[in-house]
Design goal:
The protein has about 170 residues and is mainly α. It folds into 2 domains: about 80 residues, Orthogonal Bundle (Rna Polymerase Sigma Factor, Chain: A); about 80 residues, Arc Repressor Mutant, subunit A, CATH 1.10.10.10. It is about 75% helix and about 0% strand. It has 9 helices and no strands. The radius of gyration is 18 Å and the shape is globular. The N and C termini lie far apart (about 60 Å).
Length: about 170
């Protein structure tokens, strides 16, 4: 006996679990919180399976739930402000007794995190969804409810801002 359509749909959305986790991790920068958020996303998705109108829109629908869940989490916890404050106050000097390559990577990662954290929300969400969710421009536009040109523009501005921040920190 074939599974019912709702079961098949839920099985399909489970195939995107890695994408959901990466997007959650990109927004909250903490693996434990990202796991919790991903579970919350799937609970919301399961409760709203009836709102998927097309088999082709499943990933967009799921990533929209992911984005909104992460945004709600950040609003509730004030994570945006705290993350930016922490990133600005984080030491960027070398870690004592660490090999020079590891120190370099650690410093570069800290600078990159500060650059992404400093992006305005509209730019940051496009940057994170594209980088961690590996979402096409068309799918990003549908997920965010904006035009594809707006996605490209925001992503370009985000990339430029991150590149400028890295350049100012001595990384080109």
């Amino acid at each position: 006996m074939a599974p019912d359509p709702e079961t098949r749909l839920f099985e399909e959305i489970l195939t995107y679990k890695d994408d959901v986790f990466r997007v959650c991790l990109g927004f909250c920068r903490n693996a434990s919180d990202a796991e919790d958020l991903a579970q919350e996303v799937y609970l919301k998705a399961y409760g709203n399976l009836g709102s998927v109108h097309s088999r082709y829109a499943v990933k967009d629908w799921l990533l929209r739930i992911t984005r909104n869940t992460c945004l709600d989490h950040q609003k509730k916890k004030g994570v945006i402000r705290r993350f930016q404050d922490r990133a600005a106050a984080a030491p960027s000097g070398p870690v004592p007794d660490a090999p020079s390559d590891a120190v370099e990577r650690s410093e570069r990662l800290a600078v990159l995190k500060r650059a992404v954290a400093g992006l305005p929300w509209k730019l940051r969400q496009v940057f994170v969804l594209r980088l961690y969710g590996e979402i096409s421009y068309r799918d990003l536009a549908r997920t965010l409810g904006v035009k594809e040109g707006t996605v490209m523009s925001r992503l370009n501005r985000a990339r430029q801002a991150v590149a400028e921040h890295l350049k100012e920190a001595g990384y080109e």
